[in-house]
UniProtKB/TrEMBL annotation:
Membrane-spanning intervals of the chain: none
The protein's name in its UniProt record: ABC-type polar-amino-acid transporter
Subcellular location: Cell membrane
Reaction it catalyzes: a polar amino acid(out) + ATP + H2O = a polar amino acid(in) + ADP + phosphate + H(+)
MF GO annotations: ATP binding; ATP hydrolysis activity; ATPase-coupled polar amino acid-transporter activity
Organism: Corynebacterium phocae
Protein family: Belongs to the ABC transporter superfamily.
Pfam families reported in the protein's UniProt record: ABC_tran
């Protein structure tokens, strides 16, 4: 579903990503871990070209990610993204936030979009909030709206860039529960997170990054019980204790 070949990314003189080669299969749930500044979010954001790349190529479902224009917009519509901040439109109701993409981009009728929005809001557990505005919802509820909004585009891939890091601790689980359900349903997911419980429970693969490189690529059990590199051992020692 996702293929990344020889990707390098620089911010001026700083190399954020160094020769990234990666393949992610359909239905895989890949959790990206690593210390701050390791390139996790940059990697995530290159997959729908929110960050441009300096070298290499990225393919989504066999199609090369274009650099710009209508073709990029079309392919980007297949890649849902949920950010740290919820990025909801404050002047629109919850339901209207969810229907905006399907009606504007997918050209879905208003009635079909409304029906889809209510199904998705039900799925993430907040259908009863449909007529409220973002400011009337908790952070956890707003993030669940953001997930519903991304799902409304019927994406092939979902990217999550630290989706719980801006939430109060008691709101984290309600968002992780929705993500775990998505994983069980077979959604292809790339998740940048510090939530180790989610990584152990929901991931098929763990990518551990350091200094802009993928240092380990393995299953959760192997990573958490027997990390192969000193960087990973040091990271786990700090996180788990």
């Amino acid at each position: 579903m996702i293929r990344i070949n020889g990707v390098n990314k620089f911010f001026d003189d700083f190399q954020a990503l160094t020769h990234i080669d990666l393949e992610i299969g359909r239905g895989d749930v890949v959790v990206v871990l690593g210390p701050s500044g390791s390139g996790k979010s940059t990697l995530c954001r290159t997959i729908n070209r929110l960050e441009t790349i300096d070298d290499g190529s990225i393919y989504i479902d066999g199609e090369k990610l274009p650099e710009e224009g209508k073709e990029l917009a079309r392919l980007r519509a297949d890649v849902g993204m949920v950010f740290q901040s919820f990025n909801l439109f404050p002047h629109l109701t919850i339901k209207d936030n969810v229907t905006l993409g399907p009606t504007k981009v997918r050209k879905m009728s208003k009635s079909d979009a409304d029906k889809l929005a209510m199904e998705l809001l039900e799925r993430v557990g907040i259908a009863n909030q449909a007529d409220k505005y973002p400011a009337q919802l908790s952070g956890g509820q707003q993030q669940r709206v953001a997930i519903a909004r991304a799902l409304a585009m019927k994406p092939k891939v979902m990217l999550f860039d630290e989706p719980t890091s801006a939430l109060d601790p008691e709101m984290v689980n309600e968002v992780l529960d929705v993500m775990t359900d998505l994983a069980r349903e077979g959604m292809t997911m790339v998740v940048v997170t510090h939530e180790m419980g989610f990584a152990r429970k929901a991931a098929h693969r763990i990518l551990f990054m350091a200094d802009g490189q993928i240092v380990e690529d393995t299953d959760p059990e192997s990573f958490f019980t027997n990390p192969q590199t000193d960087r990973a051992k040091d990271f786990l020692g700090k996180i788990l204790h």
